[in-house]
Amino acid sequence: MPKQTPFGRPVTELARKRFSCRSFDGRGLEPEQLEALANFPVGLDLPFASRLRFGVIDREKVRAENLFSTGSYGMIKGARFYLAALVATDAPRPWEDIGFALETAVLYATALDLGSCWIGGIFDRKNFARALAMKANEMLPAVVALGRPATRPSLRDRLVRWSARGNLRKDPAGLFFAGAWGAPLPLAAADPWSRVLDCVRLAPSASNKQPWRIVRQGSAFHFFLHRDKAYGKLMPLADLQRIDMGIAMCHFQFSAAERGLEGGWADNDPRLPDTPGNFEYIASFVAR
Fold first, then answer.
1. 72 and 169 together in one domain
2. Which pLDDT belongs to residue 160?
3. Which of 140, 2, 3 shows the shortest CA–CA distance to 83?
4. Residue range of the domain that includes 275
5. Model confidence band, residue 65 (pLDDT cutoffs 50, 70, 90)
6. How far apart, in Å, are the Cα atoms of 191 and each of 25, 39, 118, 214?
7. Does residue 131 sit in the same domain as residue 73?
């Protein structure tokens, strides 16, 4: 029997329900909801133990203080609240931990029947940071727009989702491998981990690039980043693909825990032969 998760609903259900919502109804959220969303990720055991600080940005308040700019790709409509995570600049792996923590909050928001959208590329970092009283030793890699989805998505929302192919996911044979790069790991042969891997496959990622690659060796699942160097040049202010890896790690850990599959994160680089030059080892989940 699946174990109770911190979200109150099955992670696999939430992973399928979640979508990148860019059209919100413009209404506010209850104070209790805002407090819960800001506090939910606090105290998480993050894979790389970064020091994070969370906050909610109220667009109405920021606008009143003349701090808000359009930002947010210019694609977000009707959002009033943004959840942010600030991280210490000297954190060992801040990008992955930001992805892990904020995606945990995204799954929680989905369990509350709220919409969400990751924003990591273009937003008003300067004024958002000012609204959060960001310190000199902190940085703001990404925010998440939160709210109630609009009854009907805007035309721009539909066009962006279509162009990003947001409903599509890569074939598992190109994402998961059995021991070596040339040996795809069929989900049907991965029990009891098949649903865990499928939950990773459903995770959101910048431009829907799905940059995670996982190699299973016995009880270890080695996570690699398929680096798109051109994409990094387009988005120099945040390593969005490493944030994506944290998102994938979040889906893996919580879906595994839900199925009673125990384990933890470790630095256990398998140093696989024939690893492509643009692949970067990130971490390993070692089952117990």
1. no
2. 56
3. 140
4. 164-287
5. low
6. 41, 34, 31, 15
7. yes
Tell which residue, 264, 261, 225, 267, has the closest CA to residue 246.
225
- CATH code of residue 216: 3.40.109.30
| Domain stops at, among 111, 138, 161 | 161
d(CA 39, CA 36): 5
pLDDT for the residue numbered 75: 73
**Between these two residues, 41 and 230, which has the higher pLDDT value?**
41
Number of helices followed by number of strands (H, E) in the chain = 9, 10
Give the pLDDT confidence of 193-224 residue by residue, as tens digits: 999 999 999 999 998 999 999 999 999 999 99
Domain count for the chain: 2
Q: Determine the Cα–Cα distance for residues 18 and 10; give it in Å rounded to an integer.
A: 12
User: 269: which 2 tokens?
Assistant: 């680089």
Separation between Cα atoms, residue 101 and residue 31, nearest integer Å: 21
